Task: inverse folding
């Protein structure tokens, strides 16, 4: 897996007495920048927003909190990278299904979830609850690992399919090039 930043920072310095070397250096940097952008875009797609790759909803059911994850194909979540808090209290007894064993380039041999699944945690909470969830995963499609992600849910008794507060609508505007009229 690679980090979200692949291309090195570009800097061009030229010597006043060596204009040809400076010109070649600038040309090289321009070609390298174009190559870096085209290799990155040509080999692997851009990573999805974390909320698109791992859609998450929570519910407060009698005696437990349930969080459902919809993991898109080509993505996975690490089994041992979950943290849950309810009203500021860490919940250590999280119930998770068995994961799939994987040799991960970042963390070695780990258990992961590549399919939709749910985690649950026993609780005596019955009223308004602030649930804080931390998780981490990767995209094999884009070849990146996401940083740990924190999501906050405002749960009420009997609430189902509650989405996180931090989710922002996906803006596809930046993915389309503006058309130039002639």
Result:
């Amino acid at each position: 897996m690679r980090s979200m930043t692949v291309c090195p920072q570009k800097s061009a310095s030229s010597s006043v007495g060596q204009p040809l070397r400076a010109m070649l250096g600038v040309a090289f940097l321009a070609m390298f920048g174009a190559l870096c952008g085209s290799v990155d875009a040509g080999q692997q797609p851009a990573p999805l927003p974390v909320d698109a790759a791992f859609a998450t909803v929570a519910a407060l059911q009698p005696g437990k909190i349930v969080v459902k994850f919809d993991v898109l194909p080509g993505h996975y979540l690490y089994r041992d990278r979950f943290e849950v808090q309810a009203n500021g209290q860490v919940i250590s007894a999280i119930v998770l299904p068995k994961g799939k064993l994987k040799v991960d380039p970042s963390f070695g041999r780990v258990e992961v979830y590549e399919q939709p699944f749910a985690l649950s945690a026993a609780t005596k909470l019955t009223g308004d609850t602030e649930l804080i969830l931390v998780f981490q995963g990767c995209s094999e499609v884009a070849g990146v690992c996401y940083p740990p992600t924190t999501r906050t849910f405002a749960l009420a008794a009997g609430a189902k399919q509650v989405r996180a507060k931090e989710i922002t609508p996906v803006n596809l505007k930046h993915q389309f090039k503006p058309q130039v009229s002639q």
